[in-house]
Amino acid sequence: MPSPTDTVVSELAAAAREHGRLGIDTEFVGEGRYRPLLCLAQVAVDTPSGGIRIELLDPIADEFDPAPLADVLADPKIEIVLHAGRQDVALLKRSWETEVRSVFDTQLAAGFAGLRSQMGYDALLREVLKVKLEKSASFTRWEQRPLSDEQKQYAAEDVQHILQLSVAIQNRLVDLGRLDWALEECRALEEVDDSREPELLFPRLPRVDGLDPAQRAVAFRLLEWREEEAAKADRPPSTVLQDQTLVELAKRRPRDRERLAQIRGVNEATLHRRGERLLKAIAEGRDYEPIPVERERPARQDPVDPELVALTETLVRTRANQEDLAYELLANRSDLQRVIAAWRDGTDLPDVRTLQGWRGDVVGKDIFALLNGELALRVGPDRKVAAER
User: Fold this and answer.
1) Chain-centre distance of CA 234, in angstroms?
2) 91-147 pLDDT per residue, tens
3) What are phi and psi of 127, to 5 degrees?
4) Average pLDDT of 322-331?
5) Which single residue of 28, 43, 81, 148 could bond 23 by disulfide (Cβ 3.0 to 4.6 Å)?
6) Helices 162-176 and 179-187 sit at what angle, rounded to 10 degrees?
7) How many CA atoms lie within 13 A of 210 on its CB side?
8) Comparing 198-286 with 306-388, is the CATH topology the same?
9) How far apart are CA 108 and CA 89, in angstroms?
10) Which has the closest alpha carbon to 260: 237, 276, 273, 247?
11) pLDDT tens-digit profile of 214-246?
């Protein structure tokens, strides 16, 4: 027999399908854990009378099957509205074992609608809807139960106006002819996750390139082992074994507890709790296929002229102001440095978003015109920078 919460979940899913949209936010705890723990999911859906229904789904206090809502999140025909939703998407994908499609992120979209980039939810509500929230429980232990009425009110407010906010922002975007731009940017959030694949973590280990192929194989096995231990204990990997200790173990490859104890960073607690498993992982790493060092690396580029970087940044900011766009949506310093280096060296254009799609039309072509002396920056009568050919 379905629990009361299961019934609520089914009703929310049905409402989302009927009206084609769902607002959602999460509360979670990440500190001291292997990966963030979902503590609460706040859901907002439309009602037949034109109102908004808000429900707090508590996976800690209630057992329920999220499958109906998980299916909604994965349905590309249903718009999923969030604010600053990168962490929410990753958390929901893992916790509810689903995909999240048709994302509309109100914070991200606001930057296309002539609003400040990276605006907090309450600030955006004040700016767009003239609604003021009373935020009094932002720093709270969301994993502790029972939740207070104040915590529940805080959580509910996070989705109380989110559907109305999304409509207001989308109306602005339609008027500006930028809805497609914003939707394209929001769709990128569908691909985020918080998985920790050893193959992706391994190249980021400090000093791992200084190991020989056999040592690198041991380092890879130790990285796998550390992830396994951290996941099992639900603790950050660094509390199991620090990076520098892992690399030193791979370099020296101790075969017994006595030699293991000589490694800096292997304390008595580690020896007592994990010593035998650690030695076993090192032994297993010896049997791994050696991992060669990647010798084929891009040649180190000479630093680009900082004055050219400053000049192109000024152009981007000028275009952003003219188009009423957030600067961060057009470019960043790293991308501009790569573009300038390619222009200077006469090499292929870098794969950076500033040169692609609508960004290329708004500012990408002008960057090269500026560098080639075909476009100039000047201060106009209004004391603002303008670009002219």
Assistant:
1) 21
2) 999 999 999 999 999 999 999 999 988 899 999 999 999 999 976 666 789 999 999
3) -70, -45
4) 93
5) 81
6) 130
7) 9
8) yes
9) 14
10) 276
11) 999 999 999 999 999 999 999 999 999 999 999
* Annotation: CATH topology of 306-388: DNA polymerase; domain 1 (1.10.150)
Compute the distance between CA of residue 64 and CA of residue 12 in angstroms, rounded to an integer.
13
**What are phi and psi for residue 225, nearest 5 degrees?**
-60, -45
How many CA within 13 A on the CB side of residue 193? 13
- Element holding 166 (H helix, E strand): helix 162-176
DSSP output for 36-92: PEEEEEEEEEE-TTS-EEEEEE-TTT-----HHHHHHHT-TTSEEEESS-HHHHHHH
C-alpha dihedral sign at 234, 239, 243, 247: negative
Tell which residue, 347, 223, 340, 345, has the closest CA to residue 285: 223
Taking residues 326-352, report their average pLDDT.
94
User: Hey, where are the domains in the chain?
Assistant: 4-191, 198-286, 306-388
Rounded distance between C-alpha atoms, residue 294 and residue 208, angstroms: 11
Q: What is the pLDDT of residue 3?
A: 87
Helix, strand, coil share of the chain (percent; to 5) = 55, 10, 35
Take residue 213 and report the two structure tokens written for it: 């192929």
Give me 325's structure tokens: 């766009």
Quick one: tokens of 82? Answer: 């969030």
Q: Which CATH number among 3.40.50.300, 3.20.20.140, 3.30.420.10, 1.10.340.30 corresponds to the domain 4-191?
A: 3.30.420.10
Residue 69 near residue 13 (C-beta atoms within 8 A): yes
User: Rounded to 5 degrees, what are φ and ψ at 322?
Assistant: -65, -40
> What are the helix (H) ranges across 234-332?
237-240, 243-252, 257-260, 268-286, 306-323
Q: What is the rounded CA–CA span in Å between residue 23 and residue 44? A: 5
Strand, coil or helix: 302: coil
d(CA 20, CA 22): 7
Structure tokens at 320: 């952003």
Alpha-carbon Rg for the chain in angstroms? 26
Nearest to 120 by CA among 73, 152, 157, 170: 157
For residue 367 the two structure tokens come to: 């960057």
Domain at 198-286: CATH architecture: Orthogonal Bundle (1.10)
Residues with Cβ within 8 Å of residue 231, at least 6 apart in sequence: 34
pTM, two decimal places: 0.89
